[in-house]
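Lab notebook page, bench 4
Experiment: in silico fold of construct C2
Operator: M.H.
Input chain length: 127 residues
Purpose: comparison with the prior construct
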Amino acid sequence: QVQLVESGGGLVQAGGSLRVSCKVSGRTFSKYAMGWFRQAPGKERAFIAAISWGGGGTYYADSVKGRFTIARDNAKNTVYLQMNSLKPDDTAVYYCATVSSLYSSGNYQEPSEYVYWGQGTQVTVSS
């Protein structure tokens, strides 16, 4: 059974930083690309960042480029999202996900590429 468990969300002031983590179990973590998405109230789930299975490729939405960094630790089966210079517009539930295909290539921006999702962690940025 594949499980993804996010942690590290919370309340932060605008301009601050936060790191969210996602630990994966039940799958050979190092063989699959990982992604982060977010969903704000009343909006659709949106791509934020992705990292290739080997970690050599990272991809970001324009809205977070230069502020957020995705990284993975294959020894710990964990993917991270470091968020800096946070804005109130970053307020959302953040979800991690893992793609369906082994050793896949691409920029991993489509939700349909992902097969397993975490339960989400709330990030709230106050102004």
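Observations: The two ends are 40 Å apart (CA to CA). The CA atoms of residues 55 and 80 lie 12 Å apart.
Next step: discuss at group meeting.
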